[in-house]
Design a protein that fits this description.
alpha/beta
């Protein structure tokens, strides 16, 4: 059993397509790099989990009360970007309504049932959903790896600040090449 999982966080239409409700060009730029990581993780039989921000239409949601409406279920905004190659038969989908992929979901149960110890995290937004998920993974004793060019937010400065903190306190930030070397070398 492989002890590594890849979390692809919020790479959905509203965040990553130019017509999405909360689109940032940086999210579209990271899509091909995330696809390479997905493909490499598939080669190594890592568990692939797509985490999807999805909110109920017409229902109160305190997260949506604080930010622009986005990822409303049934609008297509919460659909995984097709270019990432989601495989319904082998990949997991975790639906979340808060920044952290762990809060109010069964993500930790899925990871523990599969003997996962290492979590690679890609996606958006580095300062919100990525960082919250990294924190919770760290507090749950997972080894966290973040490929630096596979996460993004709407500001390159904000992105760098949060990656610096993640690398110092909560996990390891690697280049894509360093990540691939660890995967190929059997370190993950």
């Amino acid at each position: 059993m492989n002890k590594t999982a890849l979390l692809v966080i919020d790479m959905v239409y509203d965040f990553a397509d130019p017509n999405g409700l909360v689109y940032y060009p940086q999210n579209e730029e990271i899509l091909p790099r995330i696809r390479k990581v997905i493909d490499k993780c598939r080669e190594r039989n890592a568990l692939i989990i797509f985490v999807v921000d999805s909110h109920r239409p017409g229902k109160y949601d305190s997260e949506l009360a604080a930010v622009r409406k986005h990822c409303i279920h049934g609008t297509g905004g919460d659909e995984i970007m097709p270019c990432l190659g989601y495989n319904e038969e082998t990949d997991f989908t975790v639906i979340k309504r808060r920044y952290s992929s762990f809060y109010g979901t069964d993500l930790d149960l899925i990871l523990r049932e599969h003997g996962v110890e290492n979590i690679i995290i890609c996606g958006t937004k580095t300062n919100c959903c990525i960082r919250s998920t990294v924190h919770d993974a760290y507090f749950l004793n997972y080894k966290v790896i973040v490929p630096e060019n596979c996460v993004a937010t709407n500001s390159d400065v904000v992105n760098e600040v949060h990656l610096t903190d993640i690398n110092k306190y909560y996990g390891t930030v690697l280049t894509e090449e360093e990540l691939f070397n660890k995967l190929d070398g059997g370190e993950l």
